[in-house]
Amino acid sequence: MMMARARCAHVLAPTVVLPAYGCPDLVAAAEFAQLRPVLVDIEADDPGYSLSALERALTSDVVAVVAVNFLGIRERLGDLKDLLASRSQALLIEDNAQWFPEPADGCRLVGDLVCLSFGRGKPVSLLGGGALLVRAGSDLAILRSLIGPAPASGSLFPLKVRVFNKLLDRRWYWLINRNPAFSLGRTVFKPLTQIAALDAARTSILAANVAAYLSHERSVEARWATALSRSPMVASVSVAAERNGRLLRYPVLCRDASIRDTLLARLHAAGLGASAMYRVPLAQVSGVGNKVQMAGECKGAAAFASRLLTLPTHQQANLQDIDSAAAVLAQ
Fold it and tell me: Which residues have a Cβ under 8 Å from the Cβ of 270 and sit 6 or more positions away?
């Protein structure tokens, strides 16, 4: 976002377009980059932008549009690229924080800038950090000037890795999450304070973690699809086949908000690893408030947020857990 702002230094009140349903870290990034975030609606049954709403929001002040790959469901990047080419000077930032590119998907990166995340719970996790891919031919001088020196890795990093891996077992996660002293999985706004280079400890294990991720089978996704076909109250998020990549979590849409909340409570009680993700549209996330500007009512984001339920796809999600969750969802 800072690169986009520098590229359009002539714009007096620069803004960045964000989806109206998403992670508050997007707002934190905009605030750090001194851009005003404008929230544009998504479809009620699709995490992607409403293209008509996006087209209306492309004013001369927009210097960047963030296209979020939600849990492995890619945005309609070709349509967005065509729209920006005809209507805007804005750069397209492809946010792949919840998906990692792999040859098996047969897809190309489209954005002018592409973000990857190595944070906790991400596809390739280093418990922090990330990467920015920049289109060939871009001026990297400004980028290098924005990144501070790498911090010391710290002696506790190996312990953090062991604790995180232990928490992938749903029983341990369930026990800790029931303790009110912890706040695992809560969605709140946290300001960004600095951008630093990746530390040595994380850099040293990146290649091995990428290789391990790419070696994982995707059988859990197929099991969920089969199991959920027996439930009349939920349906998989349905998008065009070319938009489906490896899923970070398996997303389903419940018939209404009441059913979602009931199913979520039952799945939590059984310790089966369900999540409602952000629960509310981005503007309603705690701490976001007046930091954002709304481009319309964003009813699609509200409908999507109120009905979304996600289920685990990591390697520890076994057939017994899936069958137990499916039994709850079929009630």
Answer: 324, 325, 328
Q: Are 41 and 300 in contact (CB under 8 A)?
A: yes
Rg of the chain over all Cα atoms, to the nearest angstrom: 20
CA end-to-end distance (rounded Å), the chain? 46
Strand order across the 308-312 sheet? 234-236, 249-254, 308-312
Beta bridge partners of 133: 114
Name the residue with higher pLDDT: 322 or 167.
322
| Angle, alpha carbons 278-232-223 (nearest 5°) | 70
Kindly give the pairing relationship between strand 62-68 and strand 46-49.
unpaired
d(CA 301, CA 237): 14
pTM to 2 decimal places: 0.91
| Among 187, 185, 186, CA closest to 23 | 187
